[in-house]
Design goal:
With about 250 residues, this protein is an alpha+beta fold. Helices cover about 30% and strands about 25% of the residues. It has a single domain, classed as Protein Transport Mog1p, Chain A. α4 crosses α5. The longest helix is centred in the N-terminal third of the chain and has 20 residues.
C-alpha cells in the first residue's frame, strides 16, 4: 500500500512538472450574454499589464492571511517568471488545442508577460498562472476555450503524447469579466486499471489579463479542488491592478 501511495505522489509531481515546462453544467444564458456584450465593448480598450505589474499583482499574505506563495524556478529562463509562450499545435485532435493549452496556463496567442507560482494554504494549493495579453486576445482565449469544451472529450498532447480523458466543462466562475472552468483526468499508466489523476482548471479574464488556476489530485477518484479563497483573493488583487493601469 505504501508503495502505491508513493507512486501516486510521484506521478502527481511529475504531472505538475510536465505542465509547468511546456460539478458540470452551463452558466445562465442571460448572464453569459451580458458578459459577452461587456467583452466586446472592452476589447479595444483592454489594458495589458506589464511583466513587472503582473509580478506585483500576485496574491500575498496582505491579501490572503496565511497564504504561501512559492516561485517555480527563477529568472526569465526558468519556470518562475515570463515562461508562458504561444502554445504549439501538438494536440490531437486539434480541436482540443485550447483545452490542452489552458491546462499549461497558455493559449495560441503570444503574451505580453506572465507569472507562474504555487499558491494557497499549507496542504491546499494550486498552480497559479497570470498572463497578460494584447488588446482582445484575452477575450478570444476564453471564447475559444469555451467552444472547445463543447466537443473535446479526450486528447493527447506534448512530445511524450500524454493522454487526457474525461474532459468536462464545469460551472463558469463568478469572478472577473468572463471565465471558464473544466475538469479532466491525466492518464499516467495505460490499461483498464491504469492510474488516472483528476485535474481541475479555472481560467478567469480580468480585462486583458488571465488568471489560470490548476489543481491536481494525487488520489484517483478524488476530485481536484482549487481553493476558493485563493481565487477570490487573487481576483480582487487583479481587478485593482487593472483599474490602476492607465
Amino acid at each position: 500500500m505504501r508503495k502505491v501511495i508513493g507512486r501516486r505522489h510521484l506521478a502527481a509531481m511529475a504531472l505538475m512538472a510536465v505542465g509547468l515546462t511546456a460539478c458540470s453544467g452551463g452558466h445562465d444564458s442571460g448572464v453569459q450574454a451580458a458578459k459577452t456584450a461587456v467583452s466586446r465593448g472592452t476589447e479595444q480598450s483592454a489594458r495589458a499589464l506589464s511583466q513587472q505589474q503582473l509580478e506585483g499583482a500576485v496574491v500575498d499574505a496582505h491579501d490572503l492571511p496565511g497564504v504561501q506563495v512559492e516561485e517555480i524556478g527563477a529568472g526569465s529562463k526558468g519556470v518562475g517568471n515570463g515562461v508562458i509562450h504561444a502554445a504549439r499545435r501538438n494536440t490531437d485532435p486539434s480541436l482540443c488545442t485550447p483545452v490542452s493549452a489552458a491546462v499549461d496556463g497558455a493559449s495560441r496567442y503570444t503574451p505580453v508577460g506572465s507569472v507562474q507560482r504555487i499558491a494557497g494554504r499549507k496542504g491546499h494549493s494550486a498552480i497559479l498562472t497570470l498572463v497578460s495579453y494584447h488588446s482582445a486576445d484575452a477575450a478570444r482565449v476564453i471564447s475559444e476555450l469555451r467552444t472547445a469544451l463543447k466537443s473535446c472529450k479526450q486528447y493527447t498532447a506534448g512530445p511524450m503524447k500524454a493522454t487526457y480523458e474525461d474532459v468536462e466543462a464545469a460551472n463558469d466562475p463568478a469572478q472577473g469579466d468572463d471565465g471558464v472552468a473544466f475538469r479532466l483526468k491525466a492518464t499516467m499508466e495505460p490499461g483498464k486499471d491504469g492510474l488516472k489523476l483528476p485535474i481541475s482548471v479555472i481560467a478567469i479574464r480580468h480585462d486583458s489579463t488571465l488568471a489560470i488556476y490548476k489543481a491536481t489530485s494525487e488520489t484517483p477518484g478524488t476530485s481536484a479542488h482549487i481553493p476558493s479563497d485563493l481565487v477570490n483573493a487573487q481576483s480582487k488583487v487583479l481587478d485593482a491592478a487593472v483599474q490602476a493601469t492607465p
